[in-house]
């Protein structure tokens, strides 16, 4: 999965565009991410009610979405492809939300035959009226969503499936957890969600605050990575995956589409080298689809890109 450019069938964008602005913007003009309602956990011993078992769980993802991309990478790194199944939605999201369609890299729903991801939410909670997001971790046995809370999903994939996964790699080792948790909080607030806070800000002041904070953290991490292979020395962790999914989209989408344009990622010597180094790892490179990424962002946010034209660039040497 690689190259950037896409043409897709036009769909109705108006409802989704209105939804993003009206439902997610505070009176100050600041973007507020919706609450993720389903937060059950998988445990190795089943004490949570959801026992780690091969073939029981399915991930609904979008290759365009950075939050879902984390789960795809962890599943691949831990070699869980034959344990937790996966399918992708269409990168074009219209007023009805994420949809299952046949296409390049996305398919009809192979588990339940749903046409829309919203049907999985309504099957779990009849009359569901909240935000419909990816990733979704689905339980075949109970016929319901276990979680749509992306931070928990990757932790559970790493820690609870050790009977079937590659245990030589631990992305959340106990001795490093306090430092990983601190880093994850910073990365989420200022970078992962920071680009959205800039892109969907409804006032100049909210936009400037988000962009200033975003680049202050990038500057800090540039210094941190100047003499370190990963964020925590020579150990690849959850924090690297959480940071990387935003960095890999930065120059391609966020710099232009979300107006995070104080600098390009390629202007940062250490961060750019770090991003390219991780891209060389198959679990990162082979799960990155720039066509899905560009199609989704440039064609499903009409309030940001009314023409829905997908740019040809930038040309980046990965």
**C-alpha geometry:** globular
DSSP strand tally: 4
Any guess at the CATH architecture of the domain at 172-287?
A: Up-down Bundle
Helix content: 40-55%
The strand line-up of the biggest sheet is: 2-1-3-4
Q: Provide the β-strand percentage band.
A: 5-15%
Give me the oligomer status: single chain
Enzyme class: oxidoreductase
EC number: 1.8.5.-
Domain GST C-terminal: 173-297
InterPro entries: Glutathione-S-Trfase_C-like (IPR010987), Glutathione-S-Trfase_C_sf (IPR036282), Glutathione_S-Trfase (IPR040079), GST_Omega-like_C (IPR047047), GST_Omega/GSH (IPR016639), Thioredoxin-like_sf (IPR036249)
Short descriptors:
318 residues, mainly alpha, Glutathione S-transferase Yfyf (Class Pi), Chain A, domain 2, four-stranded mixed β-sheet, 11 helices, disordered N terminus, Glutathione S-transferase family protein, Glutathione-S-Trfase_C_sf, EC 1.8.5.-, Thioredoxin-like_sf, oxidoreductase activity
């Amino acid at each position: 999965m690689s190259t950037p450019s896409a043409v897709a069938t036009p769909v109705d964008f108006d409802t989704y565009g209105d939804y993003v602005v009206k439902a997610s913007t505070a009176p100050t003009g600041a973007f507020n991410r919706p609450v993720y309602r389903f937060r059950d956990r998988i445990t190795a011993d089943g004490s949570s009610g959801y026992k780690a078992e091969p073939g029981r769980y399915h991930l609904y993802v979008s290759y365009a979405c950075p939050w879902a991309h984390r789960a795809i990478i962890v599943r691949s790194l831990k070699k869980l492809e034959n344990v937790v199944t996966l399918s992708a939605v269409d990168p074009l999201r219209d007023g009805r939300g994420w949809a299952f369609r046949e296409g390049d890299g996305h398919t009809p729903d192979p588990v339940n035959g749903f046409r829309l991801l919203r049907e999985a939410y309504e099957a779990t909670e009849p009359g569901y009226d909240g935000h419909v997001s990816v990733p979704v971790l689905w339980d075949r046995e109970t016929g319901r969503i276990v979680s749509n809370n992306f931070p928990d999903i990757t932790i559970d994939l790493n820690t609870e499936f050790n009977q079937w996964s590659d245990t030589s790699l631990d992305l959340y080792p106990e001795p490093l957890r306090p430092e990983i948790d601190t880093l994850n909080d910073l990365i989420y607030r200022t970078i992962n969600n920071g680009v959205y806070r800039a892109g969907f800000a409804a006032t100049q002041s909210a936009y400037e605050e988000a962009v200033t904070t975003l680049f202050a953290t990038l500057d800090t991490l540039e210094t941190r990575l100047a003499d370190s292979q990963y964020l925590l020395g020579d150990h690849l962790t959850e924090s690297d995956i959480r940071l990387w999914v935003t960095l890999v989209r930065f120059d391609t989408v966020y710099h232009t589409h979300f107006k995070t344009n104080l600098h390009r990622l390629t202007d940062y010597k250490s961060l750019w080298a770090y991003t390219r180094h991780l891209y060389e790892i198959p679990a990162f490179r082979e799960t990155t689809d720039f066509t899905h990424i560009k199609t989704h962002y440039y064609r499903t946010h009409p309030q940001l890109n009314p023409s829905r034209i997908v740019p040809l660039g930038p040309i980046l040497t990965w």
